[in-house]
Amino acid sequence: MKNASTLSFFLLLALVYYSFYSLMPRSISALETLKTEFSTERALIPLKEITKAPHYVGTEENKRVREFLIQSLKDLGLNPETQQGYILNEKYGRMDQPVNIVAKLKGTESGKALLVFSHYDSAGIPSFGASDAGSGVVAILESLRAFNASGKQPKNDIIILFTDAEEVGLVGAKLFVREHRWAKDVGLSLNFESRGSGGPSSMIVETNQGNKNLIKGFMEANPEYPVTSSLLYSVYKMLPNDTDSTILREEGDIDGLFFAFIDDHFDYHTAGDNFERMDRNSLEHQGSYLMPLLTYFADADLGLVKSSEDYVYTNFPIINMIAYPFDWVMPMQIFAILFFIALLVLGFKTKKLNLKSVLKGFVPFLLSLVATFIVGFFGWSILLKIYPHYTEILHGFTYNGHAYIGFFVSLSLALCWFLYSKFQKKETTANIFIAPLFLWLIINILLAVYLKGAAYFILPFYCALVSFWILIKKETSSALVHLLLATPAIFIFSPLIQTFPVGLGLETIVLSTVFTVLVFGLLLSFLSTFAHKKRASIVFMFTALCLFIFAHATSDFTEDRKKPNSLLYVQDLDAKKAYWFTYDSILDDWTKTYIGSDPKEASTLFNSAARSKYNSGYTFAAEAPHFDIPHYQATTTQDTLIGDQRKVSLKFLAEKKAAVLLLYVDQEITFSSLSYNGVDVVENLSFTEKNNRLLTFSVQELDSLEVSYTLPQGINPTFTLHEYSFDLMDNPWVEVSPRTNSMMPKPFVFNDALVIKQKITPRSSVLE
Question: 526 is in which domain, residue-wise?
Answer without folding.
Answer: 2-17+327-553
